[in-house]
Amino acid sequence: MPTSSASSRDIDHVASVLVVSLPALHRALERQVDQEFPHPRLPEGRLALLWLVEEREGITVREAADALLMKPNNVSALVSQLTELELLERRQDPADKRVAHLHRDLQRGCPVVHGGEETRNDAARQH
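Above: the chain sequence. Below: its structure as tokens.
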């Protein structure tokens, strides 16, 4: 195993500089994305739910609540907000009308959910 030429003190110094720098980097990246991406940023909870539905198409509200460590009524409120924005679709389970399965609204789509910078930049160029 190769020996490291960096001392523990050097590593601590680099780590402390990174800790100080990361918040400024985060703010700069957020400003850059805000300038280049024409869509308003969704709140974290809505975005987390959209990502989850993208990953697990047809997930139920209860399953989403469990996965997101949230109460089902709070996830249901997020679902209502996202369906109103036409970013999410709620479909009743044919076997149990009390259960709703969540799907992305494919008519409208959502460039935010596709995540990659390439997709975001393509969406920004189209608007």
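Residues 8-36 form the longest helix (29 residues).
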